[in-house]
From TrEMBL:
GO terms for molecular function: heme binding; metal ion binding; peroxidase activity. PROSITE patterns: PEROXIDASE_3. Heme b binds at residue 41. One of its GO terms (biological process) is response to oxidative stress. Keywords: Heme, Iron, Metal-binding, Oxidoreductase, Peroxidase. This is Uncharacterized protein. It holds the Pfam family An_peroxidase.
Length: 60
């Protein structure tokens, strides 16, 4: 963690911005999020298998 600078420090959380900029066009962000949503869901199988807690197949 230290080698790659992944240790969280209190200084990181200071000075964040939580405002709103009306000049930013949200349409492009929306387009990419919709594309990511569709792509992610296209990776799901058409049928979901169900398994019991004892690892026995229940069905689809």
């Amino acid at each position: 963690m230290e080698k790659f600078g992944l240790i969280l420090e209190k200084q990181i959380f200071q000075g964040y911005w939580d405002g709103y900029d009306p000049n930013i066009n949200p349409n492009i962000i929306d387009a990419f999020s919709a594309a990511a949503f569709r792509f992610g869901h296209s990776l799901l199988p058409t049928a979901v298998e169900r398994w019991s807690k004892a690892h026995k197949f229940i069905g689809k």
